[in-house]
Amino acid sequence: MMQIVFFLFLGTIFCGCNNPKSPLDIIPKLPILIDIGDKEKIVFCWGKDLYAIDPNEPAEVDPDKPCRANPNENTAELILPSPYDEAFPKWLPDGKRLVFSSMSQFGEIKFYMMDFNKKKVFDMGKMCKKLLKYGLYDKPRWSLECKKIVFSGRDGIYIADANGNNIKKAVDIPESGGVTNSISFSPDLRRILFDFWDSKDKSKGGIYTVEIATGRWKRLTYDNIIIARNPNYSPDGSKIVFEGSLYGEKKWKKIYMCRRICIMDADGKNLHRLTKDDNSERITEFNPSWSPDSKKVVFTGVFTDFERINLKEEDFILKEIKKWELFIVDVETGNIKRLTYSGKTPSHSPSWRPHPKSLKKE
After folding, report:
1. How far apart are the C-alpha atoms of 74 and 294, rounded to whole Å?
2. Which of 145-159, 205-219, 252-266 has the lowest mean pLDDT?
């Protein structure tokens, strides 16, 4: 996972380049294979490809039959027939467009926008080139009506128009500190949510909000949590879900790797682990994404399984393997169901499609 993050960071150097010889120039010419219509879908990465699944039933993904249905007749559908590695999909709030990254065999990474209404893929290079002047780290995040974007730069958090114009700094970040790529607007557009770290004082690390009008910071997580990453507002603005490592979880030997899906109120109160009641053998959980009605969260869970390797005659050995699958947790009840059965190839980075009717005017 760290390798993927490293390449993503490295790729921001290239995302604004308009190199005519880039092998990634083929991406906008590829057909979108599915007609998504008004269907409820979760988009995720399976291996190097982007797939879409119905969140209401579990689905199997098979390398020989990528659209194979399981006994419940649910299908995981391949979205884009790309020869390169697609990763980190993120729906825009309008539920019509999807942003993702693509990496060539040479390690070059570029950002693209998939428009399901127009059935086209667009290169985001021109917009990213404007943001790179401020040290863009990753894909920007959009406001509800997709008129504004927010992104992290080398010395702060910035807001701009959706086309990358009118860039203004919203938050100053100390030289000793930094933010990850998990930055987003609150649904009412009054605040920016982000996670912060300080190399000189680790006790300051955690999840924060900042009021856009005043620049006033508010800290939401404190000493009861060791790691706090990837926070996301619920669509109704009442909750925040994130990846966290809480004190008191004695079975977690490697704290950083053993993250869990946690939840709290938008003001930081009632913080607790969301995925604690299913007696799971998952060793880590990450990539939380809200359902449009704010009632469920989809996430990636990693657990240990065993593969049988046959030897001579009737002898065999069991090889330990790590499986990455998608799960959905009900926010009110805590009930968890497994969504994918992906085999040896990991499923990860889910993004739940927002419903256009949930949009509010800015």
Report:
1. 23
2. 252-266
**Residue 156 · residue 121 · CB < 8 Å:** no
Report yes or no: 238 and 263 within 8 Å, Cβ to Cβ: no
Q: For 318-336, how does the pLDDT look when each residue is reduced to its tens digit (9 = 90+)?
A: 656 678 889 999 999 999 9
Report the candidate in 325, 289, 264 with the shortest Cα–Cα distance to residue 89.
289
CA geometry: angle at 260 spanning 41 and 336, to 5°? 50
CA-based radius of gyration for the chain: 20
3-class DSSP state of 356: helix
DSSP code string of 249-308: -TT-SSTTT--EEEEEETTS-S-EESS-SS---EEEEEEEEE-TTSSEEEEEEEEEEEEE
The SS3 of residue 118 is coil
Q: Do 346 and 47 meet the contact criterion of CB atoms below 8 Å apart?
A: yes
> How far is residue 200's CA from residue 186's CA, in Å, rounded to a whole number?
29
Residue 37 CB burial class (10 angstroms; 0-12, 13-18, ≥19) = exposed
Percent of the chain clearing pLDDT 90 (strictly above): 42
Q: What is the pLDDT of residues 150-194, one digit of tens each?
A: 998 888 899 999 999 999 999 888 776 677 668 999 999 999 999
